Amino acid sequence: MAVLAWLRRLSWWAKFYACLYLGTILVDLTVPLVLFAFDQGWQLVPFPGVDLGDFHSSAADLVVESWIRVTLNVSLCVLGVWLGTPREPADETSAAVGDSLNGVALEQPLLAGTETMGTATPAALARSATENAAFEQKKRADRRKYAVVAVSFVANTAFAAFTAIKAVSFDFQNEAVEGSCMATAVICCNAEFLLTKWLADALTEEIGHLIKSIHNHRLFFHPYRPCHWCDVCHTRIKGELYRCRLCDFDCCSICFDRKTRKGAEGLLRGDKGVRTEREMTTRAYFVRALKFAKPNAHLILIAVLCLAANSGARLALPNFQGDILDNVFNADDDAFWKNVKLLISFSVVTGFFGAIRSAAISVVGRRIAFQVRNELFKAIIVQDIAYFDGTMTGQLTSRLTNDVGGMVAP
Questions:
Q1: How many beta carbons lie within 10 A of that of residue 309, not counting itself?
Q2: CA spacing 20 to 30 A to 158: which of 92, 182, 199, 384?
Q3: pLDDT number for residue 57
C-alpha cells in the first residue's frame, strides 16, 4: 500500500520517464544478445570467455558491457535520487522555530522597506526560517545529485566510445543487421544518460506552493532576487519572494502570508467584487492561437512552401561547391562553368524564397498583432468602473503594446 501511495504522488513526467527508462533498458539488454546470437549463427553455444580487447570477431564483450552499463545507470539513478532529496524535513525546522517564538511579539518589519505593509509576526518569521533552511538544503542536495549525474555522463561516454570502436573494427557478416544493432547500442548509451538525469530531476522536483487565491501556478521560494516587483501589491521586492517558473509571476512574502489578492491592484474586478479568473491551459492557448492564425492560413502556407524550397536549395549548394573544386582539380572547363551557373542560380533561388518567407511571416505577425489589440481593446472598454479603479493605467498600456508585441515576436 505504501508503494502504491508513493506511485500516486509521482508527477506525470516522472511516470513517463520511468516507463521510457524501462523500455530503453530492455532494448539495451536485448540488442547485444541479438548481435551475439547472430554472430553465433543462432545456435545454443557455451558463452565464450570475454576478451575486451577483441574488437573484430566476438560480440560477447558487448553483452557484458550492456549488463554493466544498465546496472551502473540504474544504481546511479537511485543514488542521485537519494542524494538529491533534502535530508531534514522542513516541518521540523518550522516547528522548532515556532516553539522558540511562542508568545514573542516582534516590532521589526520582516523585510526592509515594507514598514507600511505591516510588521512581522512569529508565524511569518517561522515561515521565513523554514523556507530559507529548505532552500539551502535543496541547493546542497542538487549539488550532490548533479555530481552523480556527472559520473553517469563520464561512464556513458566511455561506454559509447567503446561501442563505437567496436563498430569500426568489427568484421561484419551482415552489415545491415549487425551495424543497426551496434548503432542502437550507442543510442542507448546516450538515451540512458539523459533518462537518468531526467528521472532523477523528476523524482526530486520541488513541489512549491499552490495558492489559487494568489496565482493559478505553483510558487517557489527564493531568498533574494534583485530588480523584481510584486505582481500583487506592485511594490519593489527587497528580500524574500515567491516566483512562478512558468509565467514570470512574483509575489512578496507579505502578500504570500496574506494568502489572498483582495485589495490588490491588477485584478479582474466588477461592480460586484473580484471576479474569478479561470486557469488557461496550454491546449486552450493553442486553440486561441489557431483562431487568430486561421484568417492568414494562405500566407502561412506560402511561408511553409518557401521554407521547404529554401531549405532544399541550401542543401544543394555544398554539392555544387564540391563539384566546382573537383572540376578545378581535373581542369574541366565546361563542367566548371556549368556548376558555377548552377551554384549562382540556386543561391538566387535561396535568397528569393527566403525573402518571400520572411515577408509572409512579418505580414502574418502584424495582422495577428492588429487583431489581438482590437480584441483586447474591446474587452477592456466593456469592463466595469471598478476594474479601472483597481488597475493602473500603465499596466493597461503595457498590455496593448509590449505584451502584444512580445506575443507575436518570433
A1: 17
A2: 199
A3: 67
Of residues 32, 42, 25, the one with CA closest to residue 65: 32
The whole-number mean pLDDT for each consecutive block of 10 residues of the chain, a chain of 410 residues, reads 59 84 89 77 54 63 86 92 76 46 41 44 83 88 92 92 83 78 87 91 86 84 86 83 86 83 59 64 80 89 92 86 86 86 89 92 89 89 79 82 78
The residue range of the domain holding 171 is: 2-100+136-203
Gap between the Cα atoms of 264 and 233, Å rounded: 5
Please choose, from the candidates 137, 246, 249, 106, the residue with its C-alpha nearest in 3D space to the C-alpha of residue 237.
Answer: 249
**Short-list 154, 3, 14, CA closest to 81:** 14
The H or E element containing residue 158 is: helix 122-169
Give the angle subtended at the CA of 247 by the CAs of 149 and 11, to the nearest 5°: 45
Q: Which segments within 245-387 are labelled E, that is strand? A: 250-252, 269-270, 273-274
Between helix 122-169 and helix 60-84 the angle, nearest 10°, is 170
pLDDT in the model for residue 125 = 83
CB 222 within 8 A of CB 242: yes
- 247 in Cβ contact with 218 (< 8 Å): no
Four-residue CA torsion sign, 92, 95, 101, 106: positive
How many whole angstroms separate alpha carbon 66 and alpha carbon 29? 6
Whether 145 maps to a domain, the answer reads yes
Identity at 226, one-letter amino acid code: P
Q: Tell me the sheet residues that pair with 236.
A: 229
Provide the CATH number for the domain around residue 211: 3.30.60
Please tell me whether residues 212 and 198 are part of one structural domain.
Answer: no
